[in-house]
Amino acid sequence: LSGPPESDWRGVLFANEVLDALPTPRFVIHDGEVFEEHVVVAADGQFLRVDQPADALLHAAVRHVERDREMPFPEGYRSEILPQLPYWIQAIGGLLKEGAMLFVDYGYPRSEFYLPERSDGTLVCHYRHRAHGDPFFLPGLQDLTAFVDFTALAEAGVNAGFDFAGYSAQASFLIGNGLQQRLEAIEEIGDEVERYRRHQEIKRLTLPGEMGERFQVMGVQRGADIRVRTKLTSARREDGLWVATLEDAKTGATSEVSIFMLSSTATTSSASTSSPIATGTETTTPGAWLRTAPP
After folding, report:
1. Alpha-carbon Rg of the chain, whole angstroms?
2. Strands 26-30 and 33-41, how do they pair?
3. Which of 5, 31, 125, 128 has its CA 20 to 30 A from that of 90?
């Protein structure tokens, strides 16, 4: 698609690492006032950061976050915010009459996004698969990105007329959407090298030290319900794996899911005795949503 749909439509919009690519302003607090970070070219041709008073849109967005957190940002606090996010959500989903929108990205709920220790924001630069913090290094040849405030995403979706569907880590989302069946299919692959490669890919997507916890999934819906209530009733060790029992809240039907990929940031430890997911957790799938209210 080159742009948002121009007529009513029904279906699912899936956005993987899209939100982090949106141009995001950076703000800073000086003497209690909101300023926006700008970039200028110095006389010697070098880039410099210059703080200028924020416009009305950015000012209002920062003050909204302060009210929501029930505390002002301290002097010198610098971070990112997407004041245009509500307008972007309305533009891409305003004509969705029946369906859902799913967003996958790295980020945090607002309570974690604006922690005191993140006083310089979440801006990250990537060059040849290496991350660093200098946005002026090789301009035009590296990627600049910022993490996502998933609370802001939930607010934007609800304000655009959607119902909040769920929020979870990527690992939980995959567990709730057929990861067990994928693992069983992989075990049928005769080529040992290919089987190992597939297992490594799943580890990268699900392990906490990789993408399993760093990437988050959020869904909003309109005129449809993509959720299925489940509850984790038990978790046990079996042949070196964690096996979780999930119960459908509507039908009472149970199913078992192997979660050995999630028990360690490296390889499964047979000495581990605590379940990686708390027993009794009520979830919502697809996505095995571990949070059933906006963050």
Report:
1. 22
2. antiparallel
3. 125
